[in-house]
Design brief:
heterotetramer, A: mainly alpha, Serine Threonine Protein Phosphatase 5, Tetratricopeptide repeat, 9 helices, globular, B: Rossmann fold, Hypothetical Protein Tm841, Chain: A,domain 3, six-stranded mixed β-sheet, 8 helices, binds adenosine-5'-diphosphate, binds magnesium ion
């Protein structure tokens, strides 16, 4: 049995497996995401995320990967090309944005993951012009990325990093309830959006949560 | 809500197939993406419109002679993906560039803008005109936040007309932008539509309530009130519309009374009657009135009124011939 | 059910006023009765269509070039009175006689026939063609009991085309009768419409039930079943339609997929896609397909499919130009 | 106080008043008639009859009448021109049909009423091609007319005649429940129409009932 500390690197196949699992979990949460988006958006976020991860699954399963860059890019391109909507570009960028221009890696470890998502976060901000507190997925993604960096700086394990990121995302989702939307379809709600969490932020949390679960499973059963 | 569909995830593909089965002589599918173009594309600026589906006959119904050249079609209420937009733009480009015209929604902007970047890398020039006609969606101070609703139709018409005249991309974009700036709408919602996928309602309203200014995806409006008569309702809408648009006596307009889905043409005519009376009372000249359900939200109940303020340039383009299966001039 | 109306007893007058406010350039009101005529009436056989209102854009939307000359409009779901029919006929008659085309309903027959007698006393000749396209409304043995539904549209088109060609009354009536004999429809109901006057539903159906063959006033159909997919539903409709019409491989048809009110164009396209597949599989040539909500029953949900079997004479008339605010060829 | 037997003649003004009262009662019964027509027809019979009698009231009130022919013709023409639908012609004919070609009368008595409605019944049958048992208004009108004739033949008073006619109509309505519709929109129902009374027949009953009530009121208060 492997201990937490031993899980330092995931190879491309493992990263692929991890995102297949993430996709499964996101799809399971389709009704939840749709419900959240219905409250203050147009109710299609769950549908969109489902479409995106179904496409990602299709494209991941079809191929063997040698670099983690290719895996992550495949996830992002699948979302970008199939989903549409605000979240197609935003979540597409969450994956593509981080590997764009990145030198090829055969293994994923916490420092690389932190680097990738840091770049993604920047790319998302450039694309969507939103920042923390605007009631978007950034409200969950930014704290998650910060936690990844911190853990990476402190030489924590990948699992430890993901646990922290999940927690950061979760808190971000909670905080997003208090924000007024400045982007997307909840914008016109003004004060009325308060009390409702952001749909995209919820997806970010589910993504980190299921990454953590997968890596945790690997730690336990490997 | 019963819907005559097959697998919910196939509705967009099958809608396009059904459209093309009927109008195959004039339109063709763009390969690999949910988009169509006219068959007889001309050597002129390409006009590409689009957005989320679920609002039929918008957008597919507005491709044709003197109208759009290509239509990029997203999933229900979801903007089309960048590669979808890009493929349609490539398919219509004759080397003279492409004008994108669509409603002002974050999802659409993100996807069309990304497509524009990709097109630029391929050497295809593009311009964008956003439609922001819904005066209830944001106050004038936040004009850039206003959403696009049925006013799309007028802006598409002008863009199509200008491109057909052979103007260059800059000029087509310029007059289309003017049309967009002069297009003002306001709507009222009576009953929700339902999502084909989940069967969920786009909003809830009490049996005796209506909501002024509600958006076409169920975005919250400006006032929820009790149901009222057609005349009262029309007066309320027109008051706000004239106030926001600053259209005044002596000016000339084209009018669209647009049904949102299940509201009958009978009701739309009754509203149109009052719209005409109000405009006449205010000595605003009616150039044309159109009463139709062009921009719908599934079986949503309600309607919107759109005014396009005309000058001689816009009037000429408005009157230019146009021909599509769902819109003719 | 919320309706955007004023006094329920004014809906028909106000509907006509709203129609004319928009299309005043092409149509005028017939004095004292609920009827309209084209402005540029020609020296030819006059084609008069009509029936109860509540089915908009039927009937008003089918007056125009190459279509009807006059429309006589009854109250909601009620045939127009004899003097209404008579006044419209007088208004369009150029001395060459008048052809009445309308759906086969007792109320309409009583009123149009009485009008025909009154007209005869004034020396105005008339002929009548009844539309009996609804194959579900009675078996072939009782063909004379079959009701008229969306097939009206095709028969109006042929009548208008024939009159425009300058044929005499007898000849216009003859080819219109042929068109009527060759027009076959079948419908399915999903949800009721409501009467503008009382707010009452035209029928009741369980949440998961549909009824094949239900009439456009809620007349009982042939089979109530559970909801099914669009493809299954279309197969059921087409099977019955091809069986009843005896239209077979090698023959040529025009198709109308007609929405009954609240059913979306998206759904109609999905059905149309399957209709096209079935006809192609059977080697029946599709001359034209039209997907629209022409013959509605307020916000009733459901649709009908109509086939017009073409020979060369009907095809020429079908293809002749036609132009009204809600129908163009 | 006048006794029944004394009510032999109604002058034109009284006939006018009587039909104004009939109109009021028919309009009061609009919801009932609509409900009955909804069960097996298209639900507009109450609306139609209401429109017809509203128009009749308008046209009756506008004028002074010297002959009962003119009063009855006015009622019939009002219905014929305003109602539309099957019942516009049928109920229009119920009044116009009987005074067509009839020599002018200043007074209405039972023999004249019986004669008028007998002619009307014939005219309705010619127009609509229906007969007794086809589940139409004839199912009430024919027995009512027969009773009028019988009473007239037996020199009964107008009130007596109307009482009998009302009873005949009432029984006709009951019997109409057992018939299969051969005309109008209930036709396609076949056996399913059984158990439901005919809407037009119900109107006929209301018309006779309110004529009787009005004449009865006259007897009591005159
Ligand atoms: N400009 C933006 N920047 C970052 N995220 C955004 C932006 N606009 C929208 N989003 C995210 O997208 C989510 C909505 O996604 P979705 O419902 O799929 O798209 P749409 O808004 O087009 O219906 C929001 O909850 C938000 O988190
Ligand atoms: N051919 C006919 N002869 C006599 N009465 C008829 C005939 N057709 C219909 N009716 C009467 O008309 C009534 C229906 O009237 P109404 O509902 O107003 O008209 P519609 O059937 O046009 O909706 C029926 O209940 C029946 O009594
Ligand atoms: Mg959404
Ligand atoms: Mg959306
Ligand atoms: Mg009726
Ligand atoms: Mg009726």
């Amino acid at each position: 049995m492997q201990t937490d500390a031993l899980i330092i690197n995931l190879n491309a196949t493992q990263v692929k497996e991890m995102f297949l699992y993430v996709g499964e979990k996101v799809r399971e949460n389709k009704p939840l995401l749709t419900k959240i988006d219905s409250a203050i958006g147009d109710g299609d976020h769950g549908i969109g995320m489902s479409i995106g991860f179904t496409k990602a699954e299709e494209n991941l399963k079809e191929k063997e990967f040698t670099t983690i860059n290719e895996v992550i890019k495949t996830v992002g391109m699948s979302m970008m090309t199939s989903m549409g909507g605000a979240s197609g570009v935003i979540f597409g960028t969450m994956f593509i944005g981080g590997v764009k221009g990145l030198e090829p890696h055969e293994k994923l470890n916490l420092p690389i993951l932190a680097e990738i998502f840091e770049k993604s976060l920047e790319a998302i901000k450039v694309r969507g012009k939103a920042s923390l507190g605007d009631k978007t997925m950034i409200d969950a993604f930014e704290p998650a990325v910060e936690r990844l960096k911190q853990c990476s700086d402190n030489n924590k394990s990948l699992l430890e990093g993901l646990k922290n990121a999940e927690e950061g995302a979760d808190k971000g989702v909670e905080l997003s309830k208090e924000y007024i939307a400045k982007f997307g379809r909840a914008k016109s709600l003004g004060e009325r959006a308060i009390g409702h969490q952001d749909a995209g932020a919820t997806s970010v949390w589910i993504i980190f949560k299921s990454m953590r679960e997968w890596v945790e499973g690997l730690s336990k059963h490997a | 809500m019963k819907k005559v569909i097959n697998n919910p995830s196939d509705v967009v593909e099958e809608t396009i197939e059904g459209f093309l089965a009927a109008y195959n002589h004039s339109f063709r599918k763009v390969e690999n993406v949910n988009g169509i173009t006219r068959r007889n594309l001309k050597d002129k600026v390409g006009v590409v419109i689009g957005g989320g589906s679920g609002h039929e006959p918008l957008f597919m119904g507005f491709a044709g002679d003197g109208l759009a050249d290509g239509v990029t079609i997203g999933n229900v209420f979801a903007a089309p993906s960048p590669n979808n937009v890009q493929s349609v733009a490539q398919a219509v480009d004759s080397g003279k560039g492409v004008l994108f015209v669509y409603g002002n929604y974050m999802g659409d902007i993100l996807n069309f803008d990304m497509a524009a970047e990709l097109l630029e890398m391929e050497g295809i020039e593009s311009r964008t005109v956003l439609v922001r006609d819904d005066v209830a969606s944001a106050p004038m101070e936040r004009y850039e936040d206003r959403r696009g609703i049925a006013g799309d139709v007028f802006v598409f018409k002008i863009a199509g007309g200008a491109a057909e005249q052979g103007l260059d991309l800059e000029s087509v974009a310029k007059v289309t932008q003017k049309a967009s700036d002069q297009t003002f709408s306001i709507g009222v919602a009576l009953n929700p539509g339902t999502m084909p996928d989940s069967g969920e309602s786009t909003f809830t309203l009490a049996d005796d309530e209506i909501e002024f200014g509600m958006g076409i995806h169920g975005e919250p409006g400006v006032e929820r009130t009790k149901m009222m008569t057609a005349d009262e309702l029309t007066e309320r809408l027109m008051e706000r519309l004239l106030d926001e648009s600053k259209i005044d006596s002596g000016e000339e307009v084209s009018v669209l009374v647009n049904g949102l889905g299940s509201t009958t043409l009978m009701e739309l005519f009754i509203v149109n009657r009052k719209v005409a009376q109000i405009l006449e009372d205010k000595s605003i000249t009616i150039h044309d009135m159109d009463v139709n359900s062009y921009c719908t939200t599934q079986e949503m109940g309600g309607l919107s009124i759109t005014l396009l303020k005309l000058d001689s340039e816009l009037k000429e383009l408005y009157d230019a011939p146009a021909n599509s299966p769902y819109y003719k001039k």
